[in-house]
Queue: 2 jobs
Job 1
Amino acid sequence: MSAIGKNTKVLDRQVFAADQIIFREGKPGSAAYVVQEGRVEIYKTLKDNAEVVLGEIEAGGLFGELALIDDEPRMASARAKDRTVVIAISRRQFEHKMQSSDRFIQAILRILLSNYRSVVRRAAKVEDKLQKSGMRLDD
């Protein structure tokens, strides 16, 4: 028997079809994801149901981690741009790793992510206003 144990799941691979929703804004987050193949679009839905694309995650990229760190609802939605394979990192796996890290680092990480959430909310509103006025925010 390995050191991991025969009942421990090492990797949780999930496959999504093009345009399939991976998670929705406002819902609790139970996993973070690493893109193994394909692309994922991260977007916010504004009050008028307009969608603002915040970014695209390609192979090797990580997304969905904020909800695991600060236990807040998802701040954006994620959908597969094409057939996409991801590796899910469960809350349990993440918390196990966080518990063994320095408490000071944990606190700094939570503060940084709180600031990041605030900046992303504001950026989405600005992008929406620019789009409505016929302008586009350059990458």
Job 2
Amino acid sequence: MQDDDISAKSQELCDLLAARLSLKHGSLEDRLRRAGRRLPARIRSQGQIVAEAEALATHPKLARRVDQAAVARAHAEVRAHLKGIDAAYLRRGALLGVLGGLAFNILLFTALTLAFLRWQGMI
């Protein structure tokens, strides 16, 4: 029963990481590692607790070493953090960052072109 419970918690966190941070491939441990700085260190470490518990729960003798209360607390904390992430806001921010960089480059190119034309005496 414990193995199914921990697997369900791990799968829920994997689904949330896929939905909120677009981390669709790999185990929970792989997804947490690839999330990198997009997740605070505390949340990553709490996620590691769930990932380690999932690995231990597959082995009958080692499953007894899993602290169910700690896993439940870690799962709840990571889930609460991931549910608070607005994926649309992150996408919008990334798009605005790209557009801002593009606008700056266009303005810089225009200014340099005008400076060059002025230097050549064409305007």
